[in-house]
User: Which sequence fits this backbone?
């Protein structure tokens, strides 16, 4: 049994932290939202008074925060986790952030004698709760080995992507595919409607044909074919459209800085920008089908 500090207990972190508890570790938690802290303390965690408190006297620290600015503010500086943690502590940042911020934080941690990996995830809220996430991990072989047992408690696939920042690079590329594919699936169902083809029939055929992809078979954007998809729950996230926009923006910033040509990634970012402007904060990214169906708004 190890002592683990966990910071960021939102949609994803809440489920992930519970799986750390289930694996038998002693868990200390912190979040700015007192309610999510109270919820997990009711099932066995201990509340820390601040982020640094959660990272002190522990073997491992896991963070699951919204974006790069939150990660940098929590880890860096005189009041940050890196200054407070004991040498040898393994730090795992599982948030989805830009590659440069990930490399900056890992570099600061290793300079301070800590071990650290960037370890963003794929899989969504259901996989976070079920412990079946895919982790894409950036860092040295040794730091990957130190992180693996904790990541195994929260995921089904733990993949070493390469040096620091490579986990974020993999995540950004993956989610650019996801954003493009969700729009492609949504457009196909709208076309099918116009052609008089039933959604259930298109699903039955394409899920066994070459249009098959995760956006279709696990997250279908029309109600019916996949009972667990947000389309059956008024498009309540799930994976918020704002999070998808964040990832598409990261992909386009990375493409511009690396000199990669990604026109469909850019188009998807533009469509998600428009969609998030007109939709509620908790709108799932698959809800973009409703904007595309209303052709006057595109
Ligand atoms: P969320 O907004 O539900 O949770 C973030 C949590 O961090 C919140 O509880 C917030 O109070 C807390 N927080 C913010 N700043 C803090 C600080 N300084 N100190 C302590 N706590 C702080 O977000 P989420 O959906 O759980 O996503 C977290 C990360 O995972 C994001 O980077 C997202 O891109 C990524 N991700 C999300 C999904 C998904 O389906 N939701 C899937 C894969 C990856």
Assistant:
């Amino acid at each position: 049994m190890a002592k683990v500090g966990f910071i960021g207990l939102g949609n994803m972190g809440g489920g992930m932290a519970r799986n750390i508890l289930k694996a038998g570790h002693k868990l200390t938690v912190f979040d700015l939202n007192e309610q999510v802290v109270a919820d997990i303390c009711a099932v066995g965690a201990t509340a820390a008074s601040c982020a640094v408190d959660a990272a002190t006297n522990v073997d491992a620290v896991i963070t699951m925060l919204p974006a790069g600015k939150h990660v940098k503010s929590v880890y860096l500086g005189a009041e940050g986790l890196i200054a407070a943690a004991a040498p040898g502590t393994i730090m795992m940042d599982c948030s989805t952030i830009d590659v440069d911020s990930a490399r900056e934080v890992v570099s600061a941690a290793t300079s301070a004698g800590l071990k650290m990996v960037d370890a963003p995830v794929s899989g969504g809220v259901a996989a976070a709760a079920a412990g079946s996430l895919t982790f894409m991990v950036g860092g040295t072989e040794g730091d990957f080995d130190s992180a693996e047992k904790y990541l195994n408690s929260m995921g089904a696939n733990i993949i070493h992507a390469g040096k620091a920042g490579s986990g974020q690079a993999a995540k950004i590329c993956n989610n650019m595919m996801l954003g493009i594919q969700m729009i492609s699936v949504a457009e196909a169902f709208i076309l099918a409607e116009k052609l008089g083809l039933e959604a259930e029939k298109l699903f039955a055929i394409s899920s066994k044909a070459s249009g098959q992809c995760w956006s279709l078979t696990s997250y279908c954007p029309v109600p019916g074919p996949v009972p667990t998809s947000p389309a059956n729950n008024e498009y309540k996230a799930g994976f918020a459209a704002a999070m998808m926009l964040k990832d598409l923006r990261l992909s386009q910033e990375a493409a511009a800085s690396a000199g990669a040509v990604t026109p469909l990634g850019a188009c998807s970012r533009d469509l998600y920008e428009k969609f998030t402007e007109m939709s509620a904060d908790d709108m799932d990214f698959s809800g973009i089908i409703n904007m595309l169906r209303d052709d006057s708004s595109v």
Observations:
- The mean pLDDT is 96.
- The first strand starts at residue 3 and ends at 7.
- Strands lie at 3-7, 26-30, 46-47, 60-63, 90-93, 115-118, 121-122, 133-138, 155-162.
